[in-house]
Design a protein that fits this description.
mainly alpha
Length: 82
């Protein structure tokens, strides 16, 4: 993600998120399984990232995502107790 000089997310991020939400809603209506839908979205996202980022930068994005999962951020649990 490209941030502006103040470190804020791009202005079109909310719009892009809304479009993805609609795509997910459509796939659910079409009875596409959650794993299939998520895999397709992830594959598309990785393909898009590969057009504008190095492989190492993509690995860092994925490592950040893994850390978020491990910390419980996706489920709103906050940092894991260790």
């Amino acid at each position: 993600m490209q941030f502006d000089p103040e470190g804020n997310a791009p202005a079109d991020l909310s719009h892009a998120g809304s479009i993805v939400d609609k795509a997910i809603e459509y796939m659910i209506e079409q009875k596409i399984g959650s794993l299939s839908a998520a895999s397709a979205l992830l594959g598309g996202a990785l393909g898009l990232l590969s057009r504008s980022m190095s492989d190492e930068a993509i690995v860092q994005v994925l490592n950040n995502a893994i850390a978020s999962v491990r910390d419980g951020e996706l489920r709103g649990e906050g940092p894991a107790q260790g």
